[in-house]
């Protein structure tokens, strides 16, 4: 009798991960998708402003990467809402984010880079606990995989934004086989440690330099 009970207990423990993979009653997949679509949309808007206003080639590259990635993730999550729950979420910037966006519009140079990086790091930190719940408890494996990727990516990006705040260089893959980098800025006006970024051409020039260096 005792052996039978132990065997039953062992089978129950072995089945536990499957129960988690099928979803958790406290995790609402539909609400998470709708919330994340809006959260990402706010991030895309911040990233767009960053690309337009920063003079750092590396920060411009990071923001371009975020804009591209989160736009793709929004499209995927909207398609899942339609397929799984027969509904849609029209992306919108959360109302509580508007004062912050107006504040950023009035800044430039080093002040803009630091303030934007602080907001972006906090934006990511607020999302990480939800992404962690999702990757553990979402019903659909596609969403669990995406949440795991988002959690890892945004954790790495927080580190890069913290480096910008500290005045340190970061390295960003431009997607063209090159890397965008920049040194620290001392006076807020674009010192010698910076790569001048007069638009996307600066990032492309950095990528070309990276390719040439690797060929030597």
The radius of gyration computed from the alpha-carbon positions, rounded to a whole number of angstroms, is 21 Å
Amount of beta strand: under 5%
The shape is globular
Q: What strand order characterises the main sheet?
A: 1-2
CATH superfamily of the domain at 26-167: Ferritin, core subunit, four-helix bundle
Q: What CATH architecture of the domain at 26-167 would you give?
A: Up-down Bundle
Count helical runs: 7
**What's the pLDDT, averaged over the residues?**
78
Organism: Streptomyces zinciresistens K42
Protein name: DUF305 domain-containing protein
Pfam families: DUF305
Keywords: Signal
Descriptive notes:
This protein is mainly α. It has a domain at 26-167: Ferritin, CATH 1.20.1260.10. It is 70% helix and 3% strand. The chain contains seven helices and two strands; from the N terminus they run H-H-H-H-H-H-E-E-H. It has a two-stranded antiparallel sheet. Strand 1 (171-173) and strand 2 (179-181) form a beta hairpin. Helix 2 (29-53) packs antiparallel against helix 3. The longest helix has 29 residues, at 57-85. The relative contact order is 0.14.
